[in-house]
């Protein structure tokens, strides 16, 4: 038996009689893309100074939408922007809240001293 005949017998029938088979391989990406919706929503509701929390929430929703469509690169880009925005909103919100509390405290103390001076001046007459 020739080498060519042996290969034909090993391979089986000609390709035209065999039905083509297809194999589907689902490849899942192990890259998790956080969309930061919860943090952004928190900043939108509680610390929404300069509307940074709302903008972060919008980018978080865009990130979630890109992730659902399967655009991992776009989802990561929007998630990164949302993360920067919600961190900025958190820092600005904390600084503004502390500043407002300090302004309230020092303003109250100043008003107390002014009222005390007015009362002392009236008692002196």
Automatic annotation (TrEMBL):
InterPro entries: CD225/Dispanin_fam (IPR007593), IFITM_antiviral_protein (IPR051517)
Pfam families, A to Z: CD225 (PF04505)
Subcellular locations according to the entry: Membrane
UniProt GO BP: defense response to virus; host-mediated suppression of symbiont invasion; negative regulation of viral genome replication; response to interferon-alpha; response to interferon-beta; response to type II interferon; type I interferon-mediated signaling pathway
GO CC field: plasma membrane
Signal peptide segment: none
Membrane-spanning parts: 37-59, 85-115
UniProt keywords, alphabetically: Membrane, Transmembrane, Transmembrane helix
Family matches, as PANTHER family: INTERFERON INDUCIBLE TRANSMEMBRANE PROTEIN, INTERFERON-INDUCED TRANSMEMBRANE PROTEIN 1
Protein name (Swiss-Prot/TrEMBL): Interferon-induced transmembrane protein 1
């Amino acid at each position: 038996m020739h080498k060519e005949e042996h290969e034909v017998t090993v391979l089986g029938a000609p390709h035209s009689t065999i039905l083509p088979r297809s194999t589907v391989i689902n490849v899942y990406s192990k890259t998790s893309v956080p969309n930061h919706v919860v943090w952004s929503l928190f900043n939108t509701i509680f610390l929404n100074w300069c509307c940074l929390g709302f903008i972060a929430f919008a980018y978080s929703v865009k990130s979630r939408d890109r992730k659902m469509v399967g655009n991992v690169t776009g989802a990561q880009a929007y998630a990164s922007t949302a993360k920067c925005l919600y961190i900025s909103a958190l820092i600005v919100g904390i600084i503004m809240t502390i500043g407002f509390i300090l302004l309230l405290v020092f303003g109250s103390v100043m008003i107390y001293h002014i009222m005390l001076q007015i009362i002392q001046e009236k008692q002196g007459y």
